[in-house]
Amino acid sequence: MNSMIINLFYLVAALLFVVGIKGLTRPKTAVRGNRLAALGMLVAIVVTLLDQQVIHYQIVVAGLALGTLIGALMAAKIQMTAMPQMVAILNGLGGGASLGVAAASYFTFVASESTVSGDVLLIANCAVMLAVLIGTVTFSGSAVAFGKLQEILSGQAFGFSGMKFINLGLLLASLAAVFLLVTGQAGIGGFVLLVALALILGVTLVMPIGGADMPVVIALLNSYSGIAAAAAGFIMGNTVLIISGALVGASGIILTQIMCVAMNRSLLNVLFGKMAVADGNSIDADEVYKGKVTSASPDDVSLMLEDAERVVIVPGFGLAMAQAQHAVRELADTLVSRGVTVEFAIHPVAGRMPGHMNVLLAEAEVDYDAMKTMEQSNPNFCKTDVVIVIGANDVTNPMAREDKGSPIYGMPILNVDQAKSVVIVKRSLSPGFAGLPNPLFAMDNAVMMFGDGKQAIMDLTAALHETA
Amino acid sequence: MDAFIILLSLFALAVFLGVELITKVPPTLHTPLMSGSNAISGITIVGAILATGSGEAPGVLVQLLGFIAIVFATINVVGGFMVTNRMLKMFKRRG
What we know:
The structure holds two protein chains of two kinds. Chain A has helices spanning 3-23, 27-50, 57-77, 83-111, 118-149, 163-182, 188-206, 214-236, 239-262, 267-272, 285-289, 298-306, 317-321, 325-337, 356-363, 374-377, 399-402, 453-467, and strands at residues 310-315, 341-346, 371-373, 386-390, 421-426, 446-450. Chain A is of the alpha/beta class.
């Protein structure tokens, strides 16, 4: 096929990606959108295979077969609670693929003793080095993110105060290596050094970021993997790579931004700073809770739910940890069958990646119309009879709204305390990720239902059936 | 240089298009959006095929790097689209 026809097919593929992403804007059209994007990918791959330039088929086909096998197995086996790990792996492989393409191009250039020269060579060289740098950082950064999510590595922020200077130093050294390679002052040794520097940079960038900030990291690495693909596109002047890479890069950046806003922190603060450590006048947990916490049994709570007309369930990641999604859905079903309006109020950082909680609830067959965002839920808490908080803590802490000295002040929260009564299902009064006591637990309209999330919810549902 | 400017324009426009599209995706679908866009970033597979399969006599190193890139990108594409499909099917309304 001549290159014009090939490029027209690449355009078709790119358009299918755009239409596919547009389909993802509504749950109804999302399945079709995803399939259209997959079709676009198929078009791009088939056209590339028919390209006359491609002459060594054995390796290509072997690679495609192996990758398909591994990818299909992963997609079929992965647990929904482990989706963040899956996305971390996919991000890393995307970065690794861009690194592979860039490195292969570099060694081809070196071997061919540069048949091209001047501007074209300069631009291609810049693109190669950028793809290597971004692809490698994505690769090793994602590996660390995976390790943290899978709890192979400690989820705690790990690092020391000088860490950001080391990162800055590594970045500057990498950029210097890029400059020397592009201007032809460094050879293969410099190239290997650049890869090594970028590998370390990926690790040191993600290592200091704690568990609560993982949604931001995943979204950011998602963006990097797109930008790396676009950079690989600039190497060979391939339009479909550039367009798709740009789309994915934009997607990751927007999700990163949404996550940062939801935590009231800037991206720089997430990447380089810890959360403001509570200073001298830190709040003593005993002082907040002493004598003010009311405990309730499942029977007590079922009595509270007796006359409720509107119930809102606030799920947090603790719910997924306890595998309580199905138990919660049964509770909701029981309430709905009694004519109660039940909604789920989902904070943007409720799960471990953007939208994670929604997927976990959808897996338990919760209707997506019942899942409400923070903006949709907050005006309605004052009209709500009972709020049930399960496995969520910091995102309901009224200190974020009221206490100017609090480290989480300004973070948007779910205003559950405005409801007539609040039931908090929790093992103990232990603090959440932010390490702060939650005055909500001590409020007059709040009761604690202590216990394992799943068992407590099942007991509550059973108690409701008994009184029925 | 002209070709580069055209490609750069394409990149800039695609970023803006991406921003416009993605901001309309509801939070409920953010996880499938990430895995789906991840699959799309597996478009590097095209670059990987070209880098591996073309050229007169690519060295062993180039072929090895290309092979790894193809495997990685294929996992990205196949795994990404399939897991997204699996998730999205769960979002169907209950009857």
